Amino acid sequence: MTLPQHHDIVVIGAGIAGSSIASELLERGQAVCIIDSAPHPASACSSHAYAIAHPHVGRGAPRLLRLTRIAFLIAEARWGKVWNQHGIFQPNKKDKVFNRDDVAGYLRSLDLDEGMAQALDANDAMRACGISQDGIWLPRGASLNLFEATQDALAPHPKLTCSWNTPVARLEKVNAGWQLIDPHDRPIMIAGKVIIATALETKKLAASIDVRLPLRPVRGQLSIFSIDENSSWAARLPHTAISGDGYCLPAKKLPDGNYQWIVGSSFDEGESDLRDWDASDDFNREQARGLLNYEHGDLSQLQKSGSFVGVRCVAGDRLPIIGALTQRPGIFLATALGSRGALWSALAAKLITTQVLEDDFALLARLGFAADLVAALAPARFFAGALAAAPALGAFASNSKPILPSAPKAR
Ligand SMILES: Cc1cc2nc3c(=O)[nH]c(=O)nc-3n(C[C@H](O)[C@H](O)[C@H](O)COP(=O)(O)OP(=O)(O)OC[C@H]3O[C@@H](n4cnc5c(N)ncnc54)[C@H](O)[C@@H]3O)c2cc1C
């Protein structure tokens, strides 16, 4: 009998998470084997071509603020090739009074300089980005095609092995590390270290080694609208992206004179249906009105020309799960990227590589990555012992059961 192949480092899942991690490890001189059940990379949620990326600047989530800021800077540097910087405008919520000086002071208190975030009243916003609403202008905000980014990260490399059409059903501890086993109970390979980046499927793989993760699906649909050049919407279409209740990309003028405008996205808790829903387009039409503050816009003029449907994986506390699974040495997780795949995958690449290589954490610290932030992302936050391991996370610690946090705020 031939022994299964052995690889020092195996990444399961070739979405944006797994591919970013693989690429960072390759850059650090490591040999990597990446495995996916699909015939090519970015077949699932990372087939998304219209993802936006910006640091979170809302109030009341200090860790999220710090984490997204670090992640944004890493993502900007990582995704340079496919990074499409056009700026993102974040309108003030309709029910909130906007005081420009207050908001400017708040942004300064976050150490966000004007190159990163500016408080603008409607007149200044009109001048800066063509949107006549009070809000925050994020000039470095960008969009990117996650499919291209994923493909790019897995470009041929002498130390990269790709294994397509290879579903992993479970993991088993063996002397030399971890055995990967297929759905017919046949061994696939043995790995010294395994990084699981299989979005929702991470739940099953973790369960196979007796670790329960509180992951759940949130379906989402983006609508691609076609708008006649003579429509009343045409003059209002944005030249920048807007992120508020939903988001949209800058409208694009097509050769026939009409516009293409991408608006999203719906969020359907607990749903995994990948079919296109008319109800989601209707929802997105309403979001379009809200984003442009165009209450009386005729929704029938937003003609559907296409869509993207995906299922996000979320962990409920709105933070991704990134880090070593300390109770199963040699296993690392990068999942629950929610609606921030572009940012969290870039951050996962740095964090997981540091942990896999047992590097000096000084590099992460230089990026602003303090121990409390590492702990906030760690799988251990859901399990018994979290209190002792990370006192700052006391609220998450319980006895023997994973904690199912409150409802997520998906985009
Ligand atoms: C409507 C919508 C809008 C979004 N908007 C944005 C946005 O504006 N900005 C942003 O940053 N993000 C956005 N996202 C989120 C982003 O798309 C995801 O966070 C990201 O694509 C998740 O990447 P992933 O690598 O974790 O998962 P996936 O891309 O799902 O990759 C998981 C991979 O694992 C493989 N796999 C699964 N199980 C197994 C197994 N047992 N064995 C082997 N392989 C397996 C799959 O084939 C797949 O290739 C949006 C998502 C949706 C749905």
Provide key terms for this protein.
single chain, 411 residues, alpha+beta, FAD/NAD(P)-binding domain, D-Amino Acid Oxidase, Chain A, domain 2, 2 domains, 21 strands, 26% strand, disordered C terminus
CATH top level label of the largest domain: Alpha Beta
Estimate the global geometry from the Cα principal axes: globular
| Straight-line N-to-C gap | 51 Å
* Structural class by SSE content: alpha+beta
* Beta-strand proportion: 25-35%
Using only CA atoms, what is the Rg?
Answer: 22 Å
Roughly what is the average pLDDT, rounded to an integer? 91
| Number of spatially distinct domains | 2
**Major pleated sheet:** 10 strands, mixed
Provide the list of bound ligands, each named once: flavin-adenine dinucleotide
Q: What is the CATH H-level superfamily of the largest domain?
A: FAD/NAD(P)-binding domain
CATH architecture of the largest domain: 3-Layer(bba) Sandwich
Q: State the share of residues found in helices, binned by percent.
A: 25-40%
Low-confidence stretches: 386-411
Number of strands: 21
| Tally of contiguous helical segments | 11
Q: What is the CATH T-level topology of the largest domain? A: FAD/NAD(P)-binding domain
The oligomeric state is: single chain
